[in-house]
Amino acid sequence: MGASRVAGARLVSFLADAQARGPQAALRTLNLESLAGRPLPEILVGLADHVCPGAGTVDEGIAREAYVETIVELTSAGITDLDALTADQMLTVFEIYATHAIEARICNDIGTKAITMPADAQAAIRVEAQLRDFIRNGVSDALADARGPSAAPLSSNRVQSFVDQVYEDAFRFLHARGEAESDQ
Fold this sequence. Notes:
By secondary structure, this protein is mainly α. It contains 7 helices and no strands. InterPro entries: QatB.
């Protein structure tokens, strides 16, 4: 999860900078001031190489895939204006990204046979849906402290810590569910 954690920390750092100093100043720092005033998904596309540099390794590819999935989901969630982005929406952006990154990493683990899924297609679909809910809830729970009125900003270390913890919990969950479905 190394590249995904780093990408998540970069994403949060940019969003926090945009909130603190304003989007135009944050974009100017990255030499992307021409994106100021554009919709958030368009800005995030422009930031892709900053947030997820390279895509040569599997881990970097997972980070980039999760980032792209996040951009797609933001439009559906109605989070489209960086100028009006609230602290809660910033955490939602990160929650969506972390969920996609963890899920993609686990799917890769399934592909490399680190986790066994049930042979029955319907059982596998059930397990996948349960996994997605488990991951989203785990990320949401991990971010609960960051959503409070006296919340400290998300640091890179906090991001890395809870992404690792949710990934490990989801891996154990999937392993147990996959085995339980396989035994039936």
